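Technical note accompanying the year-one report. For the benefit of new consortium partners, we illustrate the data format agreed upon in the data management plan: each record pairs a sequence with a structure-token string. No post-processing was applied to the example shown here.
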Amino acid sequence: MNESPGRLPASASQGEGMAFVLASASPRRKALLAQAGLVPARIVAPDVDETPKKRELPRAHALRLAIEKARAAGAGAMPVLAADTVVALGRRILPKAETDAEVADCLRMLSGRRHQVMTAVALVSGEKIRTRIVTTRVTFKRLTPDEIAAYIASGEGIGKAGGYAIQGRAEALIRSINGSYSNVVGLPLCETMALLAGAR
């Protein structure tokens, strides 16, 4: 694990003091920004269809949605920050689980396997678009039926890409992480701070 959820990136102060709009209703992204000392001037929940296009690869899907979310926020003069996180098994995009059955399906697929978590971050200011894509490799332990049932009962997987939230009980089910921890939570802090600093 390269980052701890309680540790700020060295460049965190670079984006402080910048007025921007966060195009996300995710409490996790808001909390991560607050951890880095950033409070959006406004938060907008963009209305964007997140259904993958036919044969769309995970990386392209995340990047497209991040840009669409930023544009949909329509914040006027202030830069708009948006992100999209995708959990992928190879070329397959796992769903944002909406039911216990979907959480179970995702966990069975992830059990004992390594997968990728990709977050695309977009900062839109007028006609200018800056983006970053960060990939973290996560490996689950081999899960027993009882472990899957207990996680489903916690309710934490509902509404989460890939059916799990690493910042909760799922962390005990994960054998290894290669890359940014905050990326798996939903926003790679180091790269996000670099985007904001570059827009000043």
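Partners are asked to follow this layout when depositing records. The first strand starts at residue 21 and ends at 22.
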